[in-house]
Amino acid sequence: MPIVYAAVAEDGQVTTECQLAGNKTDFSKVITVLLERMEHRNHKKSYSHEGFSYNYITEDEVTYVCVATMDLPTRLCFGFLTKIKNLYDGGEEFDAVLEEQMAFFNNDPKADKIKGIQSDIKTVQDIMMENIENVLQRGEKLEDVLDKTDKMNANASTFRESSRKLRRAMWWRNVKLNICLCFICLILLVVIFFVVVWACGGFSFPKCG
Fold first, then answer.
1. Radius of gyration of the chain measured on its C-alpha atoms
2. Cellular component GO terms, alphabetically (predicted)?
3. 3-139: CATH class
4. CA 6, CA 54: separation in Å to the nearest integer?
5. What are the residue boundaries of the structural domains of the chain, listed by start?
6. pLDDT digit string (tens) for 147-203?
7. Which of 7, 146, 169, 198 sits a CA distance of 20 to 30 A from 77?
């Protein structure tokens, strides 16, 4: 019953994340949909989807997320989130902290008794777990949203590849153009040189001395 994924997001964008080794589920896609549709005021929420709980705390426009198997007590999920919220400093190496805290909360029985997070854990009993599709608009299905997201990502990837190829083609075109211009200038200089030689009566320039 482990925490299998954790992330921190700012302004709706994941800035650091960590996934339990050996778990192949792509949680980041669901998290992206969740971040796009959640309220960004200070609050806590818990959703369920396909055997996992998606739990998060939003505070001061920073969202702390963890995904766990459904048999992990909700109080531990929010204890973990409170812990990483207290540790988060906005640094780029925070994924190592996520990994360390995931290992602690997954393996150490003392994790449920940490001082400093007990008061926050008490508020968890007021959080009702909902199906994650409740965050979607009426009539939407998560699978359809994820499929649209995949297609948008694929289109974005195709666009980036096309742009890269276009930039490469334009670069080669400019290189070839510059080579041609240099060659033309060289030819013009040679022609001018021989015209001057002819006008001056030869290479010793007798008429121009």
1. 31
2. cytoplasmic vesicle membrane; endosome
3. alpha beta
4. 10
5. 3-139, 141-209
6. 555 555 555 566 677 778 888 888 888 888 899 999 999 999 988 888 887 877 776
7. 146
